[in-house]
Amino acid sequence: xxxxxxxxxxxxxxxxxxxxxxxxxxxxxxxxxxxxxxxxxxxxxxxxxxxxxxxxxxxxxxxxxxxxxxxxxxxxxxxxxxxxxxxxxxxxxxxxxxxxxxxxxxxxxxxxxxxxxxxxxxxxxxxxxxxxxxxxxxxxxxxxxxxxxxxxxxxxxxxxxxxxxxxxxxxxxxxxxxxxxxxxxxxxxxxxxxxxxxxxxxxxxxxxxxx
Length: 211
Known about the structure:
Blueprint: H1 7-12, H2 31-121, H3 138-143, E1 145-146, E2 154-155, E3 173-175, E4 193-195
Antiparallel strand pairs: 1-2, 3-4
């Protein structure tokens, strides 16, 4: 009995057939193409956005290089002006230092001459007749003289002849007791005083040869 009461039940319980357009989740159909196309769109969009930024960065770099060069020129000019202004001060400082060394050298030699004269006045050393108790030359102050007649002891009054800072040499104008005070030549009898051989003028207006 194919046409019995159960025939309608079989037809109604059959699984319904749906078309593709009537699927429950139709958005998943285009999932794969969208997945492939999205990175391409993003890359194009990023390329359009970053292109102007590169041009701006290049412009900024050029302007920064220009500013750096300008700053370098300004700094060099300022240093040049400062160096020019400081040059006279440095030169004066060097001259003042040389003058201080000249005073020290003259004082050292004159102290040695005075000590030699003191030993001679106390008859501790033998002196030549007519020397007035002053050393015959500066080398004698360095080499030393014998104390007493029967003694081997020697006393030195200078470790070395000082260098004249104005001439750079250990040479001095010598003056003896017999020489005229205004004389520029040494008589050769004894060493009463010493002066610099420099003909320069000091910062205070005096001449080094008169010190």
